[in-house]
Amino acid sequence: MDKPHSPSSDRNREPILAVLRERFADRRRVLEIGSGTGQHAVHFAAALPALTWQCTEREENLPGIRMWLDEAALPNTPAPITLDVNGTWPTARYDAVFSANTLHIMGWPEVERMFAALPAVLDDDATLVIYGPFTMDGRHTSESNAAFDATLRARAPHQGVRDVAAVDALARAIGFAPVENRVMPANNRCLAWRRP
Ligand SMILES: C[S@@+](CC[C@H](N)C(=O)[O-])C[C@H]1O[C@@H](n2cnc3c(N)ncnc32)[C@H](O)[C@@H]1O
Q1: Residue of the nearest CA to atom 10 in ligand 1?
Q2: Among 82, 115, 135, 162, which is most exposed with the fewest C-beta within 10 angstroms?
């Protein structure tokens, strides 16, 4: 098996890292949901050695992540663990969550399940950072995002670009307050919340 590769991860990792340097400066244990190839994990864990970066993914994607983690051999990336937000969650606790480009791939009920499950794995003062395309007040922020949304929904009707307000409502319902809505390259956003 070849190591999986995501070109978009190569493009967005530096702008995301700039956000994480601020938001995770006082964090120690990050739970990443939907790690994909594992490229983000390797890049962020190498740049932020004070963090322990726990990759998670659906079972079928773990072999690829292991290839990236094994090659990098970082001291702060434990073996990836299986996490489908519909299934069993880890028993460990974390003080931060990161997830990139996952909310538009999950169906909305899965997004709701993800947020509902977070309190059981998070410290009281946890920080949450979510990266991806979002609509603002129900409106796409670019033509390309509108086209991407249409493509997603045509391919898989449960998928689709989510609205910032709807995601924010889920975060607030579990005690998080918004701290950032940063415009990122390629019409993406980094949303961050913190529990006071
Ligand atoms: C577009 S990829 C993003 C991967 C990576 N985070 C990135 O930014 O390159 C979306 C990921 O969400 C994961 N995903 C989709 N549904 C999920 C679910 N129900 N539970 C956990 N992960 C899920 C997929 O396995 C996939 O790797």
Answers
A1: 102
A2: 82
Tell me the DSSP string of 71-125. HH--TT-PPPEE--TTSPPPSS-EEEEEEES-TTTS-HHHHHHHHHHGGGGEEEE
Residue among 72, 71, 82 nearest 47 (CA): 72
- Of 102, 108, 115, 152, best ligand 1 pocket probe by most atoms within 8 Å of the beta carbon: 102
- pLDDT tens-digit series, residues 42-74: 999 999 999 999 999 999 999 999 999 999 999
Cβ–ligand 1 contact at 132 (below 6 Å) = no
Verify whether ligand 1 is closer than 6 Å to residue 105 (CB atom): yes
Q: Residue 96: count other Cβ atoms within 10 Å of its Cβ.
A: 26
- Lookup: tokens for 138: 């129900």
Tokens linked to 22: 């601020």
State whether the beta carbon of 82 lies less than 6 angstroms from ligand 1: no
Distance of CA 2 to the CA centre of its chain: 24
Per residue in 134-189, pLDDT (tens digit) is 999 999 999 999 999 999 999 999 999 999 999 999 999 999 999 999 999 999 99
